[in-house]
Design brief:
Length: 477
Amino acid sequence: MLVSLKIRACPGQCNNDWNYSTTPLVADTNQCWVLINYRWRVCEEINGDTVREVEITSIDKVTGGNCDNTSTEAIMMTAVKSILFHSSGIFMIQNPTIPYDITLNIPSCWRTSDNNNQSTLVACNSDLCCRTKVTMQTVDDWPQAVNQTPVNPPNPQNCSGIIGYICDYICNSIDVPLNEPLIPWHYDYSYLCFQGCSGSIYQGYLWFTYNTNTFGVAYVGYDNCNITPSCSLRRNNIAYQLQITHIQLIHRNATVGSTYEIIHQSNRRVLKDYCISKGQNEYYIRLFVRQCWKPIGALGEQDYLIYPCQIPDDCCFRDFRVFRQDNQWQVGMLETCPAVIFESDNWNTNSPCSIGCDWRHNFPFSYCDVLNDYYGGNLREGLRETLKPKELFFKVKEKFLRNDFVFEVESSGFETVTFNIYDMLGNVLVSKGLNLINGKSLVNIDFPIQHLCDGLYYFEVVHNADKLDNGLFFFIK
């Protein structure tokens, strides 16, 4: 059970309204799992730079781990890593390979509050904060901090004299490791399913929006493999292997749906994201899926993160041919093998997985059944995909709107698209068909704005069920 606690605000750099996390981020250190609650906002340009601010508001310790033997400083450091790791998804940054800045505001003194058997780290002071600006960049498909500029933190003596509480000073524990992959969790890679591969492991991260909810997906792979396909293919070996390690729900704006569906959607995007990163036009890939997945949070709508349980030998897989044709990535279903499903000896019992793991998405099938789902048709465009001159695209140029919904857009085709606008709770405000012209134009969205509040909103542009563009904009009266 999680408790709501009063948020103690750090002074920020602007007066724009905060957006509160609709689901916490998950991280772990020293076998201590934590849920990180935060708020975030984008300020208008200050001195020519867009300011993205995040404040950590509280950290819930997940019961059953090793949090009692883990210091506040260590928990705060992994929380900072998690915020930065998922920052491109939090702020929906379309091309995180270009460096961008994140300003972290963190209260300087923290204490543990125990309420209803829930242990939570909360701030002791209301306005004494550490502030640090971190430059983030996705390098080799994995988020890294490439620079950090700390702001002078308050004196450690400020933690003393807070009557009634023992508080820990944490400003000395937020030095972010630079120019190396950020990893806000522990994962035993010896439990991965890979076989017949050599060389170093490949790590990838992407975020995507599905039904207005935003997910971050971490995956690993090898590209130096030599294994026999599970069926007759044009090639006699599989050179690439992939497996998802974590799926994090970043923004919950609507009903999330089943774990099964999220794993399926993540698999489709991972297949394409990995292919884009390699720069060729055709791949034969073995995609692994575990039978059992462990949720962090309660089952169902309160899942914040899911990852495959670490059970040796229970690896299901499917061999895919993924290729690029007419500037679209596709799965060749006639050249893709059937899924190979392994069932353990106790699969028909009520507890085929280890304690705490979930498997029964549709009795008696395990999550391996996701490999039998439909992977045909065009895979969604990857975030790093370069648009070609003859492709249709739609780009919103102005992200700060005043007085009315007038967007400047640029298109490379004469097409009809659907333009949707949502508030941050996932409520549809506008769904309008637009006839695009070639080049730049102004789009006036007919919407009664007199009752609309200043704040942040989400937009998406859809063409034939393919999302061409999405992102955030501010509306200011």
